[in-house]
Design a protein that fits this description.
This protein is of the alpha+beta class. The protein is 44% helix and 14% strand. The chain folds into three domains: 2-229, Aminohydrolase, N-terminal nucleophile (Ntn) domain (Glutamine Phosphoribosylpyrophosphate, subunit 1, domain 1); 230-576, Rossmann fold, CATH 3.40.50.620; 581-645, no CATH class.
Length: 663
């Protein structure tokens, strides 16, 4: 696991200046790779590749990057892991390839030399983002893994392509300048994250999962990301070719597949462990690790004194049953709050999933003991674990069957929510729901009655600000490309549709971003067995009844876990991994939030309309309803804006601009 950065200017680059700039770009990623740094340049070709190394496999200097292929044709800077590299190495050795070390990067280079880039990547089971330069064809390829576990950003600065594992690497270029993309900001206020391919900066992009971007020296602006694998295709093929075996056989096959996915991710030359919340997903990962380990697996969890947000005792019970070497840390509210100032720099662009706080805390705890940790992420999206997969489609059915004119009449009735009766019911409903007042619930119901499709209902449910373009000054309502071209058959059942939409948006752009930045922020590698592409493809071939049964998700995962852990230890209402954000904003964070949401400041900055923000803030502080998610999104943008306004440190001797030939 590492950090990568580089630049490509087909007109050529100045060697000394480019080296200084590349050093600054890679230095910005030191947290991703504290063990080693490397650079390779070809000034005439205009290519510069940089690397920061977190040593995981082959700790010797033979794992140093950027790395050259044995024939000298390819140079690579690689972030990630190829889990099946031993099998690939065996195949390549049989074809005459010799290896100097035992890193997966060297195997990947040999695979590219033997089979060419795309066939080589298609053979890889792993998580990765890398840049490979073809010295013969003078071509640069940027590649990202299938599920989007590892990040890769890119954008043009004049005639120079910049790329890196995080935006801070691009910003470290002395001539970097990019304006805030207001359409992307509106998407952020809606979702709490910025969906690919957008970033917070106009003209800077995320490489979509499962794609290759190719740039040739002869045509500097050529290149559109091309898929080598897609969740869309996996879903379409799975739905068209469902598995028809008895449920007992499917459970057996899934157990074997998960066991192999976990086994592959236990490969490391450094200490390894796992996050353990005591829920279904993390428990099955740890159970399969322990079943294949000769010694106790190291497991980690953080706990909170607030019972509603604490799962530590559940994790401890699972750890005792499995016999793991378990470490837990109870975190005080003060310790949790102390992480908030770090978030803008850690996530590098606005990011508003408040579980970023406990995720960072458990990563920091884990890194004190191990360098690699497995996690149970992705089980919900693949196997129907979220309650919304039951509630949302159940809600959509009656709406879809109700004639439009009847819906309009109902909506008009709900528009009377400001009556005296409604005001009297507000405290009671607030007490029942724990979040929204009766008036607010009526407004939501009125808007839901107006949705026109199950996909539109999903967007509504997953939105913080429902009309963000009205809050962001000068913004439009930009489309999310991953949601536009749906796979055949996925809309036959709204449950499949909602799982698919989460798989291509919420999972890669929220969950995986959260895990990557939190773990790499403390130099910890996180691996996710449930995102093995074979598991994704198998999940889409499963009958829906193997995912959601009797109103409960992850049926097949529960059957597998029953083989290793008594159900009483894991069967409980899903808590999530959160913090008491609503209370914090009314209490210890109130002064911080007031300063960031000051209407005069918002007007001066010119990005956000203070009116609706102030209204929600006052309603939240008063306690009549809760707007914690909406306000947290605004606060994370404001905090990011402060951090982005601070210039990065300038290394000694670095000049003000990169000298390149822009002809």
């Amino acid at each position: 696991m590492c950090g990568i950065a580089g630049m490509f200017h087909p007109g050529g680059i100045d060697d000394a200046e480019a080296r200084r700039t590349l050093a600054a770009m890679t230095a910005a990623l030191e947290h991703r790779g504290p063990d080693d740094a490397g650079a390779w340049l070809d000034p005439t070709a205009g290519i510069a590749l940089g690397h920061r190394r977190l040593s995981i496999i082959d700790l010797s200097p033979l794992g140093h990057q950027p790395m050259h292929s044995a024939d000298g044709r390819y140079v690579i800077t690689f972030n990630g892991e190829i889990y099946n590299f031993r099998a690939l190495r065996h195949d390549l050795a049989a074809r005459g390839h010799a290896f100097r070390g035992h890193s997966d990067t060297e195997v990947l280079l040999a695979a590219v030399a033997e089979w060419a880039l795309r066939p080589a990547v298609e053979r890889c089971n792993g998580m990765f983002a890398f840049a490979v330069w073809d010295r013969a064809d003078r071509t640069l390829h940027l590649v990202r893994d299938r599920a989007g576990e590892k990040p890769l950003y890119y954008g043009w600065l004049g005639g120079t392509l910049l790329f890196g594992s995080e935006l801070k690497a691009l910003r470290a270029h002395p001539a970097f300048h990019a304006e805030v993309d207001r359409d992307a900001l509106a998407l952020f206020l809606r979702h709490g994250y910025i969906p690919a391919p957008y970033t917070i900066y106009r003209g800077v992009f995320k490489l979509p999962p499962g794609t290759v971007l190719t740039l040739e020296a002869s045509n500097r602006y050529q290149g559109v990301p091309v898929e080598y694998w897609s969740a869309r295709q996996a879903a379409a093929q799975g739905l068209a070719n469902p598995l028809v075996e008895p449920a007992e056989r499917l459970v057996e096959d899934f157990d074997a597949l998960l066991r192999d996915a976990v086994r592959l991710r236990m490969e490391a030359d450094v200490p390894l462990g796992a996050f353990l919340s005591g829920g279904i997903d993390s428990s099955i990962v740890v159970a399969l690790m322990q079943a294949q380990s000769a010694r106790p697996v190291k497991t980690f969890t953080v706990g909170f004194d607030e019972a509603r947000y604490n799962e530590a005792h559940h994790a401890a019970a699972v750890a005792r049953h499995l016999g793991t070497e378990h470490t837990e840390l109870y975190v005080t509210p003060r310790e949790a709050l102390a992480t908030i100032p770090r978030l803008p720099a850690l996530y590098d662009e606005p990011f508003a999933d408040s579980s970023q706080i406990p995720t960072y805390l458990v990563a920091a705890l884990t890194r004190r003991h191990v360098t690699v940790s497995l996690s149970g992420d992705a089980g919900d999206e693949l196997l129907g674990g979220y309650r919304r997969y039951v509630r949302g489609p159940a809600l959509w059915g009656p709406i879809a069957r109700t004639p439009a004119r009847v819906r309009r009449v109902l909506a008009r009735a709900l528009s009377l929510r400001h009556s005296a009766l409604a005001e009297a019911l507000n405290p009671l409903v607030r007490r029942w729901t724990g979040k929204r007042s009766f008036t607010e619930r009526c407004r939501q119901a009125e808007e839901i009655l107006a949705v026109r499709s199950a996909a539109e209902l999903h967007r509504y449910v997953m939105s913080f600000w429902k009309r963000p373009a009205a809050v962001v000054l000068g913004a439009g309502d930009a489309p999310v490309p991953a949601t536009l071209d749906l796979p055949a058959g996925v809309d036959h059942d709204a449950r499949d549709l909602w799982m698919y939409l989460d798989l291509v948006t919420y999972l890669p752009d929220d969950i995986l971003v959260k895990v990557d930045r939190a773990s790499m922020g403390v130099s910890l590698e996180s691996r996710i067995p449930l995102l093995d592409h074979r598991v994704i493809e198998f999940a889409w071939r499963l009958p829906l009844s193997c995912k959601i049964r009797d109103g409960q998700g992850k049926w097949i995962l529960r059957q597998v876990l029953d083989r290793y852990v008594p159900r009483r230890l894991v069967e409980r209402r899903k808590q999530g991994f959160g913090v008491p954000l609503a209370a914090w904003l009314r209490g210890p964070l109130r002064g911080w939030a007031e300063a960031l949401l000051d209407p005069r400041r918002l007007r001066t900055e010119g990005f956000l309309d203070p009116g609706p923000i102030r209204q929600k803030w006052m309603e939240h502080v008063a306690g009549g309803t809760s707007w914690d998610y909406d306000l947290w999104a605004v606060l994370m943008f404001q905090a990011w804006l402060d951090a982005a306004a601070s210039p990065p440190p300038v290394p000694a001797g670095r000049s003000a601009a990169l000298s390149v030939a822009d002809s």
